[in-house]
């Protein structure tokens, strides 16, 4: 029996602050967008840049961590799977969207000051997401 693989890894910057809501059953879900850019030179030596935007969805504890610690402009590493959702609006029109359902998130770049106490202030350890304990898989 063959198995499939659906795995996505991106590094980019948040395009807006994360938005969190709760499902009717009380499960937290946070959404945000990530921009990734790439540059290249054409055959005539001209520089080009292209930016791709990705919709990100996180669930449960990771959703709460993303809402608490991520802000617009921040650089992050995201790992997850692609998912396409389809729905019909009130006028009967069909819509679809492709998004990354994140299972890992790691904050990159400079550490930002937060209002959360540090380990020295409260005598404990700093709060980190579970994804920060793992190293990059490459």
Characterization of this structure:
It contains two helices and six strands. With 138 residues, the protein is mainly β. It has a single domain (8-133), classed as OB fold (Dihydrolipoamide Acetyltransferase, E2P) (Beta Barrel), CATH 2.40.50. A five-stranded mixed β-barrel has the order 1-3-4-6-5. 13% of the residues are buried.
| CATH fold call | OB fold (Dihydrolipoamide Acetyltransferase, E2P)
**Class from helix and strand fractions:** mainly beta
Number of domains: 1
Tell me the name of the CATH class: Mainly Beta
Q: What is the CA-based Rg, rounded?
A: 18 Å
How does the overall form come out from the CA principal axes? globular
Largest sheet: 5 strands, mixed, barrel
Number of beta strands:
6
Weakly predicted, low-confidence segments = 115-138
Beta content: over 45%
Which characteristics define this entry?
single chain; mainly beta; five-stranded mixed beta barrel; disordered C terminus; 138 residues; OB fold (Dihydrolipoamide Acetyltransferase, E2P)
Itemize the secondary structure elements and their pairings.
Blueprint lengths: L7 E7 L4 E4 L5 E14 L5 E13 H10 L5 E14 L5 E14 L11 H4 L16
Parallel strand pairs: 4-6
Antiparallel strand pairs: 1-3, 1-5, 2-3, 3-4, 5-6
């Amino acid at each position: 029996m063959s198995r499939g693989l659906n795995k996505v890894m991106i590094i980019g910057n948040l395009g807006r602050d994360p938005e969190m809501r709760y499902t009717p059953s009380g499960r937290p879900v946070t959404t945000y967008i990530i921009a990734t850019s790439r540059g290249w030179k054409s055959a005539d030596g001209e520089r080009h840049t292209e930016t791709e935007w990705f919709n990100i969805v996180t669930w449960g504890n990771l959703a709460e961590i993303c809402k608490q610690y991520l802000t617009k402009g921040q650089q992050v590493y995201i790992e997850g799977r692609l998912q396409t959702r389809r729905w019909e609006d009130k006028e009967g029109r069909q819509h679809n969207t492709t998004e990354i359902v994140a299972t890992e998130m790691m904050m990159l770049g400079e550490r930002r000051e937060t209002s959360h106490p540090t380990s020295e202030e409260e005598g404990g350890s700093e709060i980190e997401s579970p994804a920060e304990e793992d190293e990059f898989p490459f």
